[in-house]
């Protein structure tokens, strides 16, 4: 059914389709019966898939990566589709429009996307207000919410740590865990913050604030798949030094290798991060490297190329603690969590 609907949706610009689809789902769920039916159909039923991690209870191990619900607009809808956790953002201290449109491009032959959104969001205050309202209204919700935080485009890298601090403090009472995003390729200079000294300044400051709280929040770092072995080793060392709760591997890639889409078409799309199936193999290699070199002592959320239960199992077999989908959600449709969890239940993960 969704495959037919996807053919129709793919006739229109990706970003417009995203908001059209989610807004229609939002309005449909205003009708209580429809929301009940959605929740009953899409929510995984196997309690054995529940996961305890970071001191949190995940009803199932399949989450939605950051970038899909940047402004915490669709939590109710995403919960009804069965996600065990949702990462909102990336949010920045001040609102910003992001890069010029068009800025999202499909590669159907590769089951991939290229995006250069540029941290478009309404700002951290708007996200905090929505999240606080969510927690007040949905006291029965079991959805785990992560806050993915970044810096504004106009903020110099030398002062980036202040942007992350603002976002951390503003969202502290509103989210269950934090992910520091220094790995998006769509904000100029952002990936330079993945160097050890810059990261230590950002993460060390956040962890100092965090440990001063009565109940510190899990603090994770999201990394790029384009790091060198030396940079990955620095990440491993840093994860112990700062006592990170975990890592997210990986963000999108700037690589354009091994694509089925004609190179002329890809070049026409221009710059941006590539996600989806083309990222699966390399993101898994990064996952394996991190698990091996941290000796499994730092939990890793696997992200990159997960479309099916078999894809998720491959990540878990490599040592992932949880998995996140994003592009797979676009291509596989609203039943993706249910299908992945059904597969995981069948093999008794």
What's a quick, concise take on this entry?
With 349 residues, the protein is an alpha/beta fold.
Explained architecture:
The protein is an alpha/beta fold and 349 residues long. It has one domain (2-94, 117-253, 275-346): Alpha-Beta Barrel (TIM Barrel), CATH 3.20.20. The chain contains 13 helices and 13 strands. The chain has helices at 2-9, 14-28, 32-42, 75-80, 124-137, 160-171, 196-211, 229-241, 263-269, 280-293, 309-317, 327-332, 336-346, and strands at 51-53, 56-58, 62-64, 85-91, 104-107, 112-115, 144-149, 177-181, 219-223, 246-249, 273-276, 300-303, 322-325. Strands 3-4-7-8-9-10-12-13 form an 8-stranded parallel β-barrel, surrounded by 5 helices. α5 runs parallel beside α6 (160-171), α6 (160-171) runs parallel beside α7 and α11 packs across α13 (336-346). The longest helix has 16 residues, at 196-211. The two termini are 28 Å apart. The model has no long low-confidence stretch (mean pLDDT 97).
């Amino acid at each position: 059914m969704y495959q037919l609907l996807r053919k129709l949706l793919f006739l229109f610009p990706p970003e417009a389709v995203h908001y059209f689809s989610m807004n229609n789902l939002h309005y449909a769920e205003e009708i209580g019966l429809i929301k009940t039916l959605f929740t009953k159909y899409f929510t995984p039923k196997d309690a054995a898939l529940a996961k305890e991690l970071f001191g949190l209870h995940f009803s199932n191990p399949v989450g939605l990566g950051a970038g899909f619900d940047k402004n915490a607009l669709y939590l109710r809808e995403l919960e009804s589709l069965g996600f065990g956790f949702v990462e909102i953002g990336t949010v920045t201290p001040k609102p910003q429009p992001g890069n010029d449109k068009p800025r999202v491009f499909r590669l159907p032959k590769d089951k991939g996307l290229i995006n250069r959104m540029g941290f478009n969001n309404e700002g951290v205050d708007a996200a905090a207000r929505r999240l606080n309202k969510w927690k007040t209204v949905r006291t029965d919700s079991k959805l785990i919410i992560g806050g993915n935080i970044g810096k504004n485009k106009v903020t110099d890298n030398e002062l980036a740590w202040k942007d992350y601090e603002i976002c951390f403090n503003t969202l502290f009472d509103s989210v269950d865990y934090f992910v520091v995003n220094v790995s998006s390729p769509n904000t100029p200079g952002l990936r330079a913050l993945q160097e050890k000294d810059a990261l230590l300044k950002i993460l060390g400051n956040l962890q100092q604030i965090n440990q001063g709280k009565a109940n510190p929040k899990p603090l994770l770092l999201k990394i790029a798949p384009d790091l060198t072995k030396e940079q990955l080793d620095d990440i491993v060392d840093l994860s112990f030094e700062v006592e990170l709760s975990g890592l997210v591997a990986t963000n999108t890639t700037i690589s354009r290798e091994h694509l089925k889409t004609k190179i002329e078409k890809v070049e026409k799309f221009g710059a941006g991060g590539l996600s989806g199936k083309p990222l699966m193999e390399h993101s898994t290699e990064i996952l394996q490297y991190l698990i091996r070199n941290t000796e499994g002592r730092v939990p890793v959320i696997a992200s990159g190329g997960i479309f099916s239960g078999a894809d998720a199992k491959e990540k878990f077999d490599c040592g992932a603690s949880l998995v996140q989908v994003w592009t797979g959600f676009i291509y596989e449709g609203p039943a993706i969590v249910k299908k992945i969890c059904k597969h995981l239940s069948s093999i008794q993960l």
